[in-house]
Specification:
By secondary structure, the protein is mostly helical. The chain starts with 18 loop residues before the first helix and ends with a helix. It has a domain of about 30 residues. Helices cover about 60% and strands about 0% of the residues.
């Protein structure tokens, strides 16, 4: 009888954001919200 066994170990670490990356992400989210609000306004306007 032959047994073949294979094990994997996966480690997940949370990535640390730099100050520039955090500022960029905040700006992207703000622009996304502005565009979403504009789309809602245009939908209600028509």
């Amino acid at each position: 009888m032959t047994m073949n066994i294979l094990f994997f170990s996966i480690t997940i670490k949370k990535r640390q954001l730099s100050l520039e990356d955090a500022a960029h992400q905040e700006m992207v989210e703000k622009l996304y919200e502005q565009n979403k609000d504009r789309q809602i306004f245009m939908r209600n306007f028509m």
